[in-house]
């Protein structure tokens, strides 16, 4: 079994897509073992996206991610890091395959509705950013 961090980004929450997105995880048989809504500060977004600090889109990305509440979740299941990335689709919604969350709901490469950890190492760091052990069930 494996765990990954999923985030429904500010555009997903603002557009009332929380239920639609959670439904996709549930229909895929992916378990949700922790969930919270939070509004991160700009500084917190800079810390979360530290790996991207030198990318040209860092300022815009952190401004957007701090623009409204997000829903953070810990997903649990076999191969869930890869399976969540597959459900999300490509970073740019234009390149995302039909049937994926980003294809269905993404507006552009920045407002792409969801985040998902990309490796076991990053999943552990990202889960610990949002949740302590008591907040994770099972
Ligand atoms: P992913 O979210 O698919 O793991 P990533 O880790 O490369 O993609 O980038 C993190 C986020 O940064 C991504 O979800 C949206 C934003 N982003 C990535 N590439 C971008 C670009 N070329 N222009 C604007 N925002 C970008
Ligand atoms: Mg990434």
Looking at the overall shape, the CATH architecture is 2-Layer Sandwich
From the N-terminal CA to the C-terminal CA, the straight-line distance is 12 Å
Helix/strand structural class:
alpha+beta
Ligand kinds: 2'-deoxyadenosine-5'-diphosphate, magnesium ion
Unreliable stretches: none
- Which topology does CATH recognise? Alpha-Beta Plaits
Quantity of strands, as a count: 4
Largest sheet: 4 strands, antiparallel
| Integer count of domains | 1
* Spatial strand arrangement across the major sheet: 2-3-1-4
Question: Keyphrases for this structure?
Answer:
138 residues; alpha+beta; Alpha-Beta Plaits; 7 helices; binds magnesium ion
List the helices and strands and how they pair.
Elements: E1 2-8, H1 10-14, H2 18-27, E2 31-38, H3 42-48, H4 58-65, E3 70-77, H5 80-88, H6 101-105, E4 114-116, H7 120-130
Antiparallel strand pairs: 1-3, 1-4, 2-3
Helix pairs in contact: 3-4
Report on this model:
With 138 residues, this protein is of the alpha+beta class. The protein has a single domain, classed as Nucleoside diphosphate kinase-like domain (Alpha-Beta Plaits). The chain is 40% helix and 19% strand. The protein contains 7 helices and 4 strands. It has helices at 10-14, 18-27, 42-48, 58-65, 80-88, 101-105, 120-130; strands spanning 2-8, 31-38, 70-77, 114-116. It has a 4-stranded antiparallel beta sheet. Helix 3 (42-48) packs across helix 4. The longest helix is centred in the C-terminal third of the chain and has 11 residues, at 120-130. The protein starts with a strand and ends in an 8-residue tail after the last helix. The mean pLDDT is 98. The structure holds 2'-deoxyadenosine-5'-diphosphate and magnesium ion. 2'-deoxyadenosine-5'-diphosphate (DAT) binds next to loops.
């Amino acid at each position: 079994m494996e765990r990954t961090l999923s985030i429904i980004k500010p555009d997903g929450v603002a557009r009332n897509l929380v239920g639609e997105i959670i439904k996709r995880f549930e229909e895929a048989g992916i378990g949700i073992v922790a969930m919270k809504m939070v509004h991160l500060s700009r500084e917190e977004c800079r810390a979360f996206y530290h790996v991207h600090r030198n990318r040209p889109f860092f300022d815009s990305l952190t401004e957007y991610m701090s623009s409204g509440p997000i829903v953070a979740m810990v997903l649990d299941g076999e191969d869930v890091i890869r399976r969540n990335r597959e459900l999300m689709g490509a970073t740019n919604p234009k390149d995302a395959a039909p049937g994926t969350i980003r294809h269905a709901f993404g507006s552009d490469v920045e407002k792409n509705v969801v985040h998902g950890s990309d490796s076991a190492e990053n999943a552990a760091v990202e889960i610990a950013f949002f949740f302590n052990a008591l907040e994770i069930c099972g």
